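To: structure desk
From: M.T.
Subject: fold request, one chain
Message: Could you run this one when you get a chance? Sequence is below, nothing fancy, just the single chain.
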Amino acid sequence: MKKSLKITLIVLGVLVGIVALDTLQAKIFDNSPLLKIRENLDGGSTDYIDKGIFVNHYHCNNNENVTIWIGTKFACSVKESNTKEFDFYLTKPEIHNDIRFNDYFTFENRKIYLARNINQFYVVDGKTMTLKEYISNNNGTLDDSIKKITDKLELTGALYDGGTTIYKSKDKDVTLISCKKMDGNKNIYIGDYSLEYTDDLCD
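Reply: Done. Structure tokens follow.
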């Protein structure tokens, strides 16, 4: 056998062995394959998929990790919530008054929209957290959470349009609009100081 052919066969054997070992470790331990292409997903129940040669590794938003053979159908399960927790969903961006809302929480059948630029840090009971985290970690009712936020950030509130309340602080660059339509929109919108009430928000 020619030397060049032997070298080629050895190289091919090593490559096949590496792929086989990589596939086995990923499948046995539900790990990502080392030889992969990562596909990041925006929203839904799946955080990302690592696509290997023979297997795909799913990293779910509920911290579940599953490695399956290519061609096998799989969907991450959606984490069930209780009344003490917020579920987080990514949505298609919505624009109101040039403020882009790119995500929201759902709680008590109401949505809490947070503008893309609202990511300030606040110290609450000695702990530093984002406004989003502060809302998520509150174990009271939604109205309790809103009151704690407005008190903590010293937002000034004003009633508007039959129950809807608008809270603002120019110093903190925050506007919070709490819709309270009896037969319609009861959502919460949090944006920067330039956010204004418009008919498409709470109607």
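Reply (cont.): The helical segments are 3-29, 131-137, 142-152, 199-202. Let me know if you need anything else for the meeting.
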